[in-house]
Amino acid sequence: MPGYSSLLPFILILASAIASAETTRVYKIINPDGSVSYSDQPSSNAEAMDVQPVETVPAFRAPTTGSQSQPSSGETAKRAAPGYEQLSIQQPAHDTAFWSGNGDVMVAIATTPELSEYHRLRVILDGTTLMRVRDLHFTLPNVDRGTHQLEVQIIGSQDEIISATSSTFTLHRPSVLRRAN
């Protein structure tokens, strides 16, 4: 087929670029004692490896029975206070797990209607207030690996809570374990 053979190199380059964009480069180091460690920092005795993203599956939530069931933390957005029909944490999604080499967690909040100019968001991670912001998209820097509870509250000018929601997520990060000699 004339013309298609000239597209083949372009398609291969494009496929290679897409595949490399989905991988993370890590460095495998074999220590003098034979143990293996991995790092995100290159070194002279390290072997570079491209690692594919790890697939994650949200935890299954069994349906509750009875008419008095309490909404889960991911469902509290449906109970927003008067004036706000919805407050939800879009990212990180509730009950998800993901990798972040540097520990940065991207957060995306949605409100309906828009956040009032008189209101702020109070961001609480594992019970500790981290910040008060007006931005609906922000980054939590250098979060430790593990499972975390993220709570977002819409607060008024007197710090009163107008609406709140929460999300649980698990953060995976590479680690370097050091052995004591």
Describe this structure in words.
There is one protein chain. The protein is mainly beta. The chain has 1 helix and 11 strands. Strands 5-11-10-7-8 form a 5-stranded mixed β-sheet, with no helix packed on it. The protein has a 3-stranded antiparallel β-sheet with strand order 2-1-3, with no helix packed on it. It has a 3-stranded antiparallel β-sheet with strand order 4-6-9, with no helix packed on it. It is elongated, with a radius of gyration of 22 Å. The termini are far apart.
Helix content: under 10%
C-alpha Rg (nearest Å): 22 Å
**Count of distinct strands:** 11
Look at the helices and sheets and give the structural class.
mainly beta
Anisotropy-based shape: elongated
Helix run count: 1
Please provide the ordered H/E string of secondary-structure elements: HEEEEEEEEEEE
Arithmetic mean pLDDT: 78
Alpha-carbon distance between the termini?
66 Å
- Placed side by side, the strands forming the largest sheet appear as 5-11-10-7-8
Unreliable stretches covering 5 or more consecutive residues: 65-81
Beta-strand percentage range: 35-45%
Largest sheet: 5 strands, mixed
